[in-house]
Amino acid sequence: MADFNKPEDLFNNPDEFIKTVKQKLMPFKGLVPVVVAGVIALAGLFSSFYSVGPDEVGVIRRFGQYIRTTNPGLHLKIPFAEAVNKVKVKYIFKEEFGFRTTRPGVVTQYSSREYFEESLMLTGDLNALIVEWIVQFKIKDPVKLLFNIRNPLRTVRNISEAVMRQVVGDNTVNEVLTTRRVEINRSVQEKLQEILDSYDSGVHIVTVKLQDVNPPDQVKPSFNEVNEAKQEKEKVINQAWEKYNKIIPKARGEAAKTIKESEGYSLMRINEAQGDAAKFIATWDAYKNSKTVTKKRLYLEAMSEIWPKIGRKFIIDSSEKSILPLIKLNNVGGER
What we know:
Blueprint lengths: L6 H6 L1 H12 L5 H17 L1 E4 L3 E7 L2 E6 L2 E4 L5 E7 L4 E5 L3 E3 L5 E2 L5 H4 E3 L5 E12 L2 H7 L3 H18 L3 H7 L1 H18 L4 E12 L5 H70 L1 H16 L22 H7 L1
Antiparallel strand pairs: 1-4, 2-3, 2-5, 6-10, 7-8, 9-10, 10-11
Helix pairs in contact: 6-8, 9-10
């Protein structure tokens, strides 16, 4: 038997080396199948057991075909023939667009990188905006998720970006920034869910929420100037409406007051005229029925009104021819 003490001896006599190795392994020839079988048995034993987490389900495939779904806990499967995919069905997944969270916590830290390729969008009035948003979703059907779509996360991201661009493009820059943020969130969520359902993806969209929405840095000064001009315009309009709301109602109130006073005066004059006419008619009727009494009553009524207004009164006899000697002219002059 050759002795291969040097490496060059191996290359010089390879046949002799193989023959020598076979001779040395001859005593262990019967143990090789046993060892191989033992290894296969141990591998099959360990691969027969699998555990499913509390927030997961296990999807069992036999040679690639779906067989069953298992709940959380320890389970058995056929080794080498069945494979298990664990899917988190109670976990809420979150995808971020336009930004990335590097360290969540009480003070959240974000990546300093700018993701303009997914956040730069054009609004309906041809303005550019940097739109950042999040999409939260969960798995409602793990079987559909595994068999109907190839890359769930990439699919959700691509569809979310496409839908957000469509909805932002249907609104003006002011609507996206201020007035229609809630409507945009709801519209994107509905459209995204509709597309995923058409794919039979087994994904349920929990929420879509806009985060920061800002114009690009290059146009921020001009954008701020436009906003300031719009705010000044709104301020002037509001001030004008304020004056309008003060002056116009006051003028209307005064006009209504004047009209009501005129109507009241007119009604008073009409009632007085009607009363005087009724009084005159009643007096005339009484005069016709009793002329002497009525004439005397009218005389007395007239005298009762005139008499208190007379200063000095002289009562003389009707047969007196001359009244001058009876009047003390000096006293009259003195009192005058």
